[in-house]
Specification:
The protein is mainly alpha-helical. It has one domain. Helices cover about 60% and strands about 0% of the residues. The protein contains 3 helices and no strands. α1 runs antiparallel to α2. The longest helix is centred in the middle third of the chain and has 34 residues.
Length: about 90
């Protein structure tokens, strides 16, 4: 499943590149790169907390709460499935 923000920014970026709108293309590219940077920082923070929980299990507990395996519930006619399509 894809992130809604990633999907929207990539779609906008593709549309602007195809239409030759350079100003908006650069702006959207910067927004997309910042979003990716934020996602990576969030993942890094998770991995740091997870590592700490593994090293000091008596002090910290790290739990991931996630839905069931989504692959069996996907709609085959959507090429890119986003969180919004799931109603999250």
């Amino acid at each position: 499943m894809k992130c809604d923000m990633c999907t929207q920014l990539r779609s906008s970026l593709t549309d602007n590149v195809l239409n030759g709108v350079r100003y908006h293309t650069e702006r959207i590219r910067r927004l997309y790169l910042q979003h990716i940077k934020d996602v990576r920082a969030e993942r890094g923070a998770y991995w740091a907390r997870r590592r700490y929980a593994c090293e000091f299990p008596e002090q910290k507990l790290s739990i991931i709460i996630d839905g069931s395996d989504q692959i069996n519930n996907g709609c085959p006619w959507y090429r890119t499935k986003t969180h919004a399509m799931e109603g999250c």
